[in-house]
Amino acid sequence: MSYFVDSHCHLNSLSLQGKAGATLPEIVARAQAVGMSHMLCVACTPQEYAPMREAIAPFPGIYSACGVHPLNLEEAPNWKEEELLPCLQDARCVALGETGLDYHYAAESRMAQLDSFARQIDMAQEVGKPLIVHARQAHHDTVALLKEHQARDVGGVMHCFCDEVSMARACLDMGFYISFSGIVTFKAGENVREAARYVPLDRMLIETDCPYLAPVPVRGVENEPAFCRYTLEFLACLKGISAAVLADITAKNFAELFKVNLASSSLADFNASSLGVKALNPYKLERLLNCPLSTAVC
Ligand SMILES: [Zn+2]
Ligand SMILES: [Zn+2]
Fold this sequence. Notes:
Largest sheet: 8 strands, parallel
Bound molecules: zinc ion
Shape: globular
Structural class: alpha/beta
Radius of gyration: 18 Å
Helix content: 25-40%
CATH architecture: Alpha-Beta Barrel
Number of strands: 8
Number of domains: 1
Strand order of the largest sheet: 1-2-3-4-5-6-7-8
Distance between the termini: 27 Å
Oligomer: single chain
CATH superfamily: Metal-dependent hydrolases
């Protein structure tokens, strides 16, 4: 069986009014149709977790994660361990995140972010689950805090990596994985492409971070897991291997990091018609995705 995983998406943030007025089962069916086998759906506050968990419940092969996002500290300024803990103990929850530091959009809340991030690294140790880290213009503090709180013991991933090679190197040195989103396909993403060339295949993950950051050639529309194939094809070209091989390698990395058995449940078991979704014919799907399913991006 072959695997293809979107390691970071926010299905609960999709407008679900995008192309063809898609419902969640349709979004999942579209991902399934491009060969996607698994997804990791991420909640950014403990409050967000329960409704998100309910929404993904019918779909085998969609894992969950929960953390307090650095940009959500206004909504959850005094979040409590006892609110986050039950989310982390849920059977489908494979990681603590996303958490981290964002000085690009919220430099003024630096002290609160540092406190929140440090508490979450400690909690990840307590529950023994890896971290999903969001870092924007906070290179130094992120690495320092991860080191100070021994994040290496639980491991984790730098999601939606958009930093320099030096940051990638520092994170790899701590045993972390690096996940690439559609940013790697952007014209202005040369630093990210440089990092992607540098990161070894056995430490690489791939994600959409949807509904944000749709990759070229679908930039500007609402992102969804099916579009992960563009990032996959682009990265495969960059690394000089086939998309199928890269899908399998990144899926294997995903299983190793999040300690999951991909064979035990998969979107391949999802029966779209049982939820009232009409199967898309390949022609219609290719139009929906704007290019032939077999065409590489570069
Ligand atoms: Zn993020
Ligand atoms: Zn995210």
